[in-house]
Structures are given as structure tokens and as C-alpha cells.
Amino acid sequence: MELKIGDFGLAAKLETITEMRKTMCGTPNYIAPEIFDKINGYSFEVDIWSIGVILYILLFGKPPFESSEIKVLLI
Q1: Is 53 buried (19+), middle (13-18) or exposed (0-12) by CB count in 10 A?
Q2: Cβ atoms within 10 A of the Cβ of 15, count?
Q3: What is the pLDDT along the chain (75 residues), one digit of tens a residue?
Q4: Cα angle vertex 72, ends 46, 61, to 5°?
Q5: Which of left, alpha, beta for 61 (phi over 0: left; psi -120 to 50: alpha)?
Q6: How far is Cα 50 from Cα 6, in angstroms, rounded to an integer?
Q7: pTM for the full model?
């Protein structure tokens, strides 16, 4: 019994721990708030957010943030 979670379609390798990305991308239900910060950018911390969302779904059977409209999720 193996559990594998992977979505490398938008993966990017950060060369240093201080390197920041500013590309706005991600799945609406899993996207971290830092991704919307176009001035400061984001780093690996957004992955921790996404893991938290996955754990929430595994525990409660539904995403923590749901809406029939994507715009509502991104606000």
C-alpha cells in the first residue's frame, strides 16, 4: 500500500533558499495566499500550505475552501 502525491506540471527548482517566484499559478482549492503577492513573491512555503490542504481533505473528506465559482476562491 503506497500513497503518492505528485503534480509536477508547474514545478520550479529554486537555486537558493532566498529565491522567490512571482508567477501566479496553481489549483484554486490548493493555492496559498502568498502566490497573490506580486511584490514580494513566494517560495517553498506555499508547498506546506498545499500539503495542509491535502491533509484537511484526507481528514474531513472535502476541501477547506469550496465554491462553485473560481473567482470566489481566489478572493
Answers
A1: middle
A2: 6
A3: 887 777 666 677 777 878 777 777 777 777 888 877 777 878 878 888 888 988 999 999 988 887 777 777 666
A4: 65
A5: left
A6: 11
A7: 0.68
